Fold this protein.
Amino acid sequence: MIKDSIKEYIEKAKKLSASTKEEIENARIEFLGKKGVMNELFAQFKTVPNEERKEIGILLNELKTTVQEKIDSLKEAIAEKQESMKPKEDLTKPSNIVSLGSIHPLTTVRNEIIDIFSRIGYTVAEGPEIEDDWHVFSALNFPPEHPARDMQDTFFVENGRQDGNDVLLRTHTSSVQARTMEKKQPPIRIIAPGRVFRNEAISARAHCIFHQVEGLYIDKGVSFADLKQSLLYFVKEMFGEQTQIRLRPSYFPFTEPSAEMDISCTICQGEGCNICKHTGWLEILGCGMVDPNVLEANGIDSKVYSGFAFGMGVERIAMLKYDVKDLRQYFENDIRFLNQFSSTF
Ligand code: DAH
């Protein structure tokens, strides 16, 4: 009976299995090929009596769709299997390039300053950023109510006053001089890098937070000639052998005599240009012989010991070294600015 054989074929089609393309193709030919089962059955269908045609027709259609769906799903299964057997990513390939950060120019310059002075025997000293009036001013010979205190606009900590001693953000790293002297007798040879704070409007040339490096050398028989030679050594290491220095008389409460030091312009080598305002010189630091009052206030015998001190702005030095025109760029974290220093790694 045609009806029974169609039903058998439907069952057979449902159970079809194949693991290769060829096997699927063979199954397709067996059922749907020219001389296949379907055509054979359609030929027989012609002889089916009228009253059975409808039922058999439906069964024939069911067989056809069953076969077609089975073949499609077998094909899909093989395609998936092939996909999963494809060779995995090449694990020996270099990974995506991870861009490393760069060291901030201020850090680079600070480290370079530390490096240079450490070669002539200086060690690094530290002090707190939240300081008191004594270490920032009084111990450094700033008399009370003296206008010298106005030289630096100070951020005071509200209600921070203790025993008549104001608490404030240090305005300079010179406070580390006092911190060091109170702990240790000479010989003292330190540099103190750190952050300082001043109540200043932010502009291309000024900021309320910036960085300094302080230097202090106290021993028996330290002279102004030692100061000059140490600074000359520093400048030649930092800016190159050809760089000249010049000292101009100045005033700081904690040094006597005091001076400001200029270096020959790093851009025009002293010829005169916009950067040095056509003077050929650029100011880079303040310095002087430690005032005997400072030694005495900090428990060091000024009849036995003498010393020199200096203080410089890290931003200023980095500006000269890298030709940075606007101080604010150091603090904005603009990746386009910072990326320019990646070679300094
Ligand atoms: N503390 C000074 C300032 O912030 C810089 C300075 C000048 C430091 C002379 C010194 C020095 O040690 O001797 O402007």
